[in-house]
Automatic annotation (TrEMBL):
The keyword Cytoplasm applies. Its main location: cytoplasm. Residues 1-48 are annotated as: Disordered. It comes from Anser brachyrhynchus. One of its GO terms (biological process) is cerebral cortex cell migration. This is EF-hand domain containing 1. The keyword Repeat applies.
Amino acid sequence: MATAPGRPARTRVPRAGACAPNAGGEGGRLPWRRRRPRGRSAAAAMSSERGPALPFLPGCAFRDPTKTSFHRSQTLGYKNGFAFSRLPTVGIGGERLYVNQLSQAELEELSNTRPTLTYGQARQAPPSGFIPAHVAFDKKILKFDAYFQEDVPLSTEEHYRVRQVGIYYYLEDDSICVIEPVVKNSGLPQGKLIRRHRVPKNDRGEHYHWKDLNRGMDITMYGRTYRIVDCDPFTQVFLESQGIELNPPEKMVFDPYTEMRRMPMRMYITPSDFDQLKQFLTYDKQVLRFYAMWDDTTSMFGENRPYIIHYYLADDTVEVREVHKHNDGRDPFPVLIKRQRLPKTFVEKKKTFPSCVLEISDQEVLEWYTAKDFAVGKSTTLLGRTFFIYDCDEFTRNFYRDKFGITDFQPVEIKEKPPEEVPQVIPPYNGYGFLEDSLQNCFSLFPKPPRKDIIKMLENDHKVLRYQVALESPNPEDRKRRFILSYFLSNDMISIYEPPVRNSGIIGGKYLGKTRVAKPGSTTDNATYYGPSDFIIGSTIEVFGHRFVITDADEYVLNYMESNAESFPAATLQSLRDHFRPRQVVEEAAKSDVPALGTSQQELDELIVRVREELKLHNYLNNSSIREAFLRCDKDDSGVLDKAKFFSLCNSLSVPTNAVLVNKLIDLCSCGEDKINYRDFLRAFPS
């Protein structure tokens, strides 16, 4: 039978009162009968039709006389050519049976089950009840009482030790742990000896099981053998219920040394030669005080440290206390040696005597320290430290005077040795940061920034001296490079900038940031830096391994040095005056309306040579076209052009008139305020 896609096939269930084909009667159906309400018997239906109902009691019920059909429903049928059996839905005579009707849950299950060759999938038998181990054996533990024995090699009182433990077996995961009850003042690390886990039984990977445990047996775990002597009642009942025959219990073995300690100590009362009670009552609260010094300078970082030695007359005990000073840098421990009797001479020890002991007994000491062993001006050794006693208090003097007749208590003057001066070695400058700033790290742990001249910074703020410098290099390309060196008067720093030149192949820009440049040969102890007096026209300066030649300067440099002539050398000032003399001559001639023919020809020739070197950097200039342009404009052939026309021609021909040397040449070629002799200017552009 085809079904719609995505919808499960539905199994057809026969209705009550219907039967399979060929079951009897025409069309396979029962003869027509009268239907009655569900849940009412035939007698109840007849009684309701005839009149009042009879009570449903024994003896009052009777068979329905109107029932004429007494056949039984068939339980066999055919469907799709296959025989199948089914439970009857109606009883004898067609009476409906409610026992074999399908419940709502079964109907829903049939509606969701795809049709098969049989009446649906076979139901699986419900699984048997399963309870996991962690639920069945939760908090069920087998407890065994056991002990183990260990040797005690370094003891004269005991040769072996017996330690009692409890072995706990957890049934939920077959894990075992061993716990030793904690005994107060036992001196042994007790508690959990083996943590809870599955303990390996052998090298084949097997683990201990509760079947391997029994009373009166030995069990070895991690190299230690435990003797199981008994178990608790729950463990006994559990093992017996599992069919294990338990061995008879054994007595717990106790530690012999512990039993000996529980016995009462024997007391010996012997007469004393010295009455200690009388000494205590006589010298109670009487203490001798000595001032001593411990010289520890022989050891590394050692020093002389003062101490106070107290000798208690009541019980002949000695105490050494430290003397702390303000900001001495030491932890405040008041007592160096606590109050105790100090041994002076020991008995010669035998070779069999253990070298490590906790306390010193009277049998090991031949002589103890007494009051007569301390004296002013003498040294005494207390527990390995040698103390020199240099003074005592007044009570101590009176006691020694009355007791021993000693009257010499002259205090010894203690002179502290001056500390050895360690020369301070300044490490070499590593080049990071400023020298003064880096030097502060050598003077203190928390360096302070060096002081700055605030007045100088305020007076010279925004005052900068600018120079034109050329790089001195064996490279021909670097010789043509020009730089602008700026000297900042507020903080004596120098910066170098390279103006970018078109098509030169060199990227211009900042060449050196603001920094102080030291002169060659200066050291960290006596560092000298470049100043304005060192910048002479034509001089060479070295900046971090690069040599620069000063070729030109601003007029502001000359004006500043002339206004502060007392602060600069005469040679520096004269070099700037000689450098700016041709320009001054031109300006004076312009003011007096005299042409600049008075300028010496030698100075003009020198300037033209320098301009030619400068113009070699500008490879894009065409000298022949420049000459033709100027000659074409001078129609009168007078050799003089107007300034405006002259500068317009220079701009159209890309002549660098903003260069310092070119501008100086233009000033020398000026003939008045608005005329320029271009013939001298063209000498800088050879054909």
